Amino acid sequence: MARKKFVCGNWKMHKTVAESVALVKELKAALVGVAGEVQVAVAPPFTALKPVADALGHGGPIELAAQDVHFEKQGAFTGEVSAPMLADVCCGHCLVGHSERRQLFGETDESVNKKVKALLAAGILPIVCVGETLAQREAGETLAMVGRQVRGGLAGLSAEQIGRLTVAYEPVWAIGTGKTATTAQAQEVHAAIRGLLRELAGGVADSVRIQYGGSVKPENAAELMSQPDVDGALVGGASLKADDFSKIVKGAIR
């Protein structure tokens, strides 16, 4: 089944409001003509979501994503943002379970699962991040760890719900390190994730996009995304420069 490539830029804790708006204006100009060929989204910091949404407008080539969410709709959760709040500023996608959230902020498979369900209930499409550490890869535990995260994050979801989300495989050892999984390593894990999705959702798995994340650059993006089960990229540092990110997006076009 042909799956449209999906490239999302995760800006992490970078960019003021003015810098964010300037960047999306550059990206809109750089990606003219790409709409329809590749699905593109950017995930700015929370403070810039509404201004970026306004700058993107409706029906353009770039969609809006958030970097995280709380699983409750509202309440005494100082510093948190809910799925309905994200929907209110026109977020179409949201990352959950990013390795930095897991490592630095105690994210668990259980909380990822709650966040996925909250996002789907609010009409926002989750991008569920999974991946192993260097120690786990060297111990031969990659597929077991990724499998645990996929099963835990998607527990209790129907096949229809699984069909609405994206999975992002991001080997922790390749994030921000300059190291990148080889195309063979990426394809092996992506194929394993696809097989697990088939167990969980049947034929729906063939329509689910699985992104690769981990030091994606203009130089390696096209080769990575040429693999049969690599359906796009979750881009970190390279998404902060319009020229680099637009080259990665264009590298997704076959």
Topology, please?
Blueprint: E1 6-10, H1 17-30, E2 39-43, H2 49-56, E3 62-66, H3 83-88, E4 93-96, H4 99-105, H5 109-121, E5 125-130, H6 134-138, H7 142-153, H8 159-162, E6 166-169, H9 183-201, E7 210-213, H10 218-225, E8 232-235, H11 242-251
Parallel strand pairs: 1-2, 1-8, 2-3, 3-4, 4-5, 5-6, 6-7, 7-8
InterPro entries: Aldolase_TIM, TIM_sf, TrioseP_Isoase_bac/euk, Triosephosphate_isomerase, Triosephosphate_isomerase_AS
Subcellular location: Cytoplasm
Family: Belongs to the triosephosphate isomerase family.
Walk me through this protein's architecture.
There is one protein chain. This protein is of the alpha/beta class and about 250 residues long. It has one domain: Alpha-Beta Barrel (TIM Barrel), CATH 3.20.20.70. The protein has eleven helices and eight strands. It has helices spanning about 15-30, 50-55, 85-90, 100-105, 110-120, 135-140, 140-155, 160, 185-200, 220-225, 240-250, and strands at about 5-10, 40-45, 60-65, 95, 125-130, 165-170, 210-215, 230-235. The protein has an eight-stranded parallel β-barrel, surrounded by seven helices. Strand 7, helix 10 and strand 8 (about 230-235) form a beta-alpha-beta unit. The longest helix is centred in the C-terminal third of the chain and has 19 residues, at about 185-200. It is globular and about 45 Å long. The two termini are about 15 Å apart. The mean pLDDT is about 95.
The best one-word shape is: globular
The proportion of residues forming helix, as a percent range, comes to 40-55%
The third-level CATH topology is TIM Barrel
Class computed from helices, strands and strand pairing? alpha/beta
Strand composition percent: 5-15%
What is the spatial order of strands in the main beta sheet?
Answer: 1-2-3-4-5-6-7-8
Family: Belongs to the triosephosphate isomerase family.
Function: Involved in the gluconeogenesis. Catalyzes stereospecifically the conversion of dihydroxyacetone phosphate (DHAP) to D-glyceraldehyde-3-phosphate (G3P).
InterPro entries: Aldolase_TIM, TIM_sf, TrioseP_Isoase_bac/euk, Triosephosphate_isomerase, Triosephosphate_isomerase_AS
EC number: 5.3.1.1
